[in-house]
Amino acid sequence: MDAIILQILNGLDKGSAYALIALGLTIIFGTLGVVNFAHGALFMLGAFVAVTVRRILTLSFETIDPTRKDFLGNPLKVKTTYVEHWFGPDAGQWLIDWSVPIAVIAAIPVMALVGLAMERGLVRHFYKRSHADQILVTFGLAIVIQEIIKYFFGANPIPVPAPEIFRGSFDFGVLLGFPENAIIYPYWRLVYFAFAALVIGGVFAFLQFTTFGMVVRAGMADRETVTILGIDIDRRFSIMFALAAIVAGIAGVMYAPINSPNYHMGMDYLVLSFVVVVVGGMGSLPGAVLAGFLLGILESIASMKALIDLVPGINQVIIYLVAIVILLIRPRGLMGRKGVMED
Amino acid sequence: MFKGLDRNDIRLMLVVALVTLAAPLILNPFPADSAWAQFNAGYPDLMQRFVIYGIFAIGFNILFGLTGYLSFGHAAFLGVGSYAAVWMFKLLSMNVVPAVLAAMAIAGLFSLAIGWISLRRTGIYFSILTLAFAQMSYNLAYSVLTPITNGETGLQISINDPRVLDRAFGTAASDSVPYPDFFGLQMNDTASFEFFGRVFQFSVGYYFAAMLFLAAFYLALRLFRSPFGLMLRGVKTNQSRLEYTGINPRPYTLAAFVISGVYAGLAGGLLAAMDPLAGAERMQWTASGEVVLMTILGGVGTLLGPVLGAGFIKYFENILSKINDQILHQWFAFLPDGMEDFMVTLVSPFVGKGWHLTLGVLFMLVVIFLPGGLVEGFQRIGRLLARLVGRGRKPVSDDDKGGA
Amino acid sequence: MAILEIRGVGKRFGGLQALRDVNLSVEEGHVHAIIGPNGAGKSTLLNCLVGKLVPDEGTVVFDGRSLLGRKPWEINQMGISRVFQTPEIYSELTVLENVMIACLARRDGVFRLEAWKTLAEEDDIRGKAMQVLADLKMEDKADAHSAALSRGDKRRLELAMCLSQEPRLLLLDEPTAGMARADTNRTIELLKEIQERLGITMVIIEHDMHVVFSLAERITVMAQGTVLVEDVPERIRGNPKVQEAYLGGHG
User: Fold this and answer.
1) How many Cβ atoms from other residues are within 10 Å of residue A314's Cβ?
2) B123 vs A150, A313, A343: nearest CB
3) N or C: which end of chain A has fewer CB within 10 A?
4) Average pLDDT of chain B to the nearest whole number
């Protein structure tokens, strides 16, 4: 029992990442009708915003401390980061320690710009082309983004630590009445889950309760009528693209401490996120979220030793297997509308 | 043999055959000791990849180019073909014939099963299904199927393999790891000739692969011009009209899927025949993406396009990835120092390890501006030249799509 | 003898009763028109005939065999071809190729793996397709890309595809919608001539009364998903029920 709960918890953070990426994919698909194969790259870009912010915060200069000597007897060179120099050691250390949450704030304008540039510069010209063309051009863009990141940051994963106070784990099992050390769960994963819930809730509230969201939802349902009403839906749709980019980006920032960013993580998550979107139902926002968590948890449960002993390799294929079965018995996914993308 | 093909098709076939057979000569234009020698493509290893990936792309194009079904999992069939071929080398004989046949058969069966299921859906759902199947195969090859695939190390042949046929006929080498052969002709046998400072290499492996490539190309040519090919094009442009015209599209798309799977299997088998090693990374979805790139880059739906695309990508993968900053500095040495450094900085992200960036950019440009790929590009240039040369003459017909 | 018998057919879409107890029989060799206001269920009925929709109740019998539950291609192979309201053609293929697909479908059935012989060797099929195109005065456009055709020509192309299959029953969904008067008259002449020459049974859905009364030997009037009245044209014209439901001032 405790093992299952542990696996469910472990699935939550992965599921959160799937859900956030899938949410953005669905927003873009639902509003713009575009299949965005570069969405994983946006997630990856977010993770590298975290890397960059940390690098900026830890930029330092060298001074010579004549009072101390290094082991060769020369005057000791001391590295001081600029933030420590400017804000004092305590505040400076605090800023560096909290680089990931700070990166979230930095990522919002960055990702918004990236999203707008993508939509205005490229995706916009593909609204009327076939889905295959959309897949192909965004696939090309994903390769380009990924290679640019690889050029600047190299091919190896770059660790980004979470703030000090979230670095440990806590004994979750004791809360539920299990013996000590039965369910140990890292704090940061809990933070990630809460963060994902917050973002998802925010997106839904935005679409549900604002006039802007209402127009966009109407546009998703019936684009032409909305256009006839004289509403400039295109402008709103580019904002939605930027929003989807922000969601993917901050999802990537926060995920950096869990999975050290590397240049191909975008593609890895994209494939799975597409499976998630299809399972949830193309164009359904609640479906994307539900399927994201469901598949994250399923994947986690399938990696239990008892199950692997029973069905070897199940952990490797479970997501794809579920996707195939769902596509065959319920082609529009868990919560999708009929006839979407069936051309 | 040319019955039912028009003059353009026959000419195309002959040109392709001639170029393929003379490739060791044509692709070696630079003297071996010149600075340009690194741009030569006329060595067996690279030429083999041209024709093998050419086969892969031709097959993929039969599915995607004709029916419009975009598979993102075709590398699975290539990988399965490689595994099947290496197993034939291990169990039966180092002769490539059973290996290639088995590769095609197993890949055909595999694609029949996957196509049967995936073709129940269309559009992006089909793409995701094929992707899911390929990723599943890839993950399994790395994990539970290790006894068959030898996991990360990859499947290799060894001295102690049974090779029952070779032993029965007493042709089994016992002192070293043997090499695949075609009835005694070893795949890595190469005859080198030197003319005018150029080294021309004629290898058995290349010509074996080239003959199969020509057969594959010829079959594709006939298929494109056949009633079957017409039906596949009907599927692409209006599947529901086809249904109301009395055609069941499923068996047509399934047949196209299996044919392209067999082509992929043949390519995989040939890869193993040239270098008897099979690894799971051949099945990864990036490998599936590569054949998509080849086909689009060259010209989807055309006969020659996929071949050009495969050759283009494999050539530049080889050449661009060899260029480093040192070579760039040599090239730009004629510029003033500051300019030289600037140009090197500008170009270096696109070469060496960064060659995928070039590929990505190029691919995007093609999708955006040249949906017909290289073939369309050449046609446009040809038309432009014809207009420049023959001003006042009859304009060139617009209607040569699919002819190339 | 009735070649098509529709008995008690009903179809529901959620809360909407699209068809209710529809009875209709079409005599072999006749031109039978179905008229009625928009939303009367005419196209739904046609969709039930070609396998696009399956009725919830009732029977549809063509030439003694039920059509219910059959796939569209099976129904076509039984001898029913349909011209759609918006032209359904293969827009990336040439006009000749469009018609050749139809001819091949009639000769080879629902599937044939013929990948070795080329189209250039299919002289019979090509000749047949050219013949039909000549009948419809389209032979000069045989090598044109069908996407480039005018709207009227696209309709004629679709008609050519259907006629090349020598169907026993031809279903026409508003064959003159959106056409100019001259084109409409040409189409009427064409359909008349075909009918006289080949004796094909036709079911026509049409809003244009000029077309209906020029062609039809029997007329069924539908309204609100059911059959209002069925009769010969002369009596339909004077029927007060029809005038009330549909014709209004036109009669």
Assistant:
1) 18
2) A343
3) N
4) 89
**Residues of chain B contacting C, Cβ within 8 Å:** 3-6, 219, 222-223, 225-231, 233-234, 236-238, 240-248, 251-252, 255, 259, 399
What is the mean predicted confidence (pLDDT) over A280-304?
A: 88
Residue A234, domain extent? 2-329
Q: Is residue A320 part of a domain?
A: yes
User: Is B113 an interface residue toward A (CB < 8 Å)?
Assistant: no
Please name every residue paired with C190 in a beta bridge, in sequence order, or none if there are none. none
Residue-wise pLDDT for C135-184, tens only, equals: 888 999 999 999 999 888 898 899 999 999 999 999 999 888 877 888 88
Kindly report the nearest CA distance between residue B139 and chain A, in angstroms. 6
Which uninterrupted H or E stretch holds B238?
Answer: helix B227-244
Q: Residue C50 and residue B141: Cα distance in Å, rounded?
A: 47
Angle at B65 between CA B60 and CA B67, to 5 degrees: 100
Residue C248 has pLDDT above 80, yes or no: no
Q: Do chains C and A touch (3 or more CB pairs under 8 A)?
A: no
Assigned domain for A335 exists = no
**Residue C85 dihedral angles phi and psi, to the nearest 5°:** -65, -45
What are the structure tokens assigned to C69, written together?
């539950």
What is the rounded CA–CA span in Å between residue C199 and residue C27?
Answer: 12
Tell me which architecture the domain covering C1-79+167-251 has in CATH. Answer: 3-Layer(aba) Sandwich (3.40)
What is the overall mean pLDDT for chain A? 85
User: Element (H or E) spanning B341, and its range?
Assistant: helix B337-347
ipTM here = 0.93
Ranking A120-134, A209-223, B59-73, B179-193 by mean pLDDT, the lowest is: A209-223
Distance, in angstroms, between A118 CA and closest chain B CA?
Answer: 13
1.10.3470, 1.10.3110, 3.90.1150, 1.25.40: which CATH number matches B7-301?
A: 1.10.3470
* Cβ–Cβ gap C116/B231 under 8 Å: no
pLDDT number for residue A81: 84
Going from the C-alpha of A63 to that of each of A73, A74, A82, A88, the distances in angstroms are: 16, 13, 12, 16
H helices present in C82-228, as ranges: 95-108, 123-135, 151-164, 181-198, 209-215
pLDDT tens by residue, B19-54:
999 999 999 888 888 877 888 888 899 999 999 999
Q: Tell me the two tokens of residue B394.
A: 């009859």
Higher-scoring residue by pLDDT: A164, A219: A164
C-alpha to C-alpha distance for B203 and B273, rounded to whole angstroms? 13
The DSSP bridge partners found for residue C26 are C4
> Within chain C, where are the H helices?
42-50, 72-77, 95-108, 123-135, 151-164, 181-198, 209-215, 233-238, 240-242
Closest chain B residue to the Cα of C126, Cα to Cα = B227
Using the beta-carbon criterion (under 8 Å), do A267 and B286 form an inter-chain contact?
yes
Does the pLDDT value for residue B192 go beyond 50? yes
C-alpha A317/C-alpha B138 separation (Å) is 10
* Spatial contact of B253 and B62, defined as CB atoms under 8 Å apart: no
Confidence at residue B396, expressed as pLDDT on a 0 to 100 scale: 45
pTM of the model: 0.90
A touches B (3+ CB pairs < 8 Å)?
A: yes
Q: What is the pLDDT of residue A325?
A: 87
Q: Is residue A341 part of a domain?
A: no
Q: What is the pLDDT of residues C201-227, one digit of tens each?
A: 999 998 888 899 999 999 999 988 999
Could you tell me the CA-to-CA distances from B246 to A204, B91, C73 in Å, in that order? 47, 47, 4
Instruction: Compute CA distances C225 → A251, B254, B315, C34, C35, whole Å.
Output: 53, 40, 65, 12, 12
Annotated domain spans of chain C: 1-79+167-251, 93-166
Residues A32-80 have pLDDT tens digits of 888 888 999 999 999 999 999 999 998 888 888 777 777 777 777 888 8
Domain count, chain A: 1
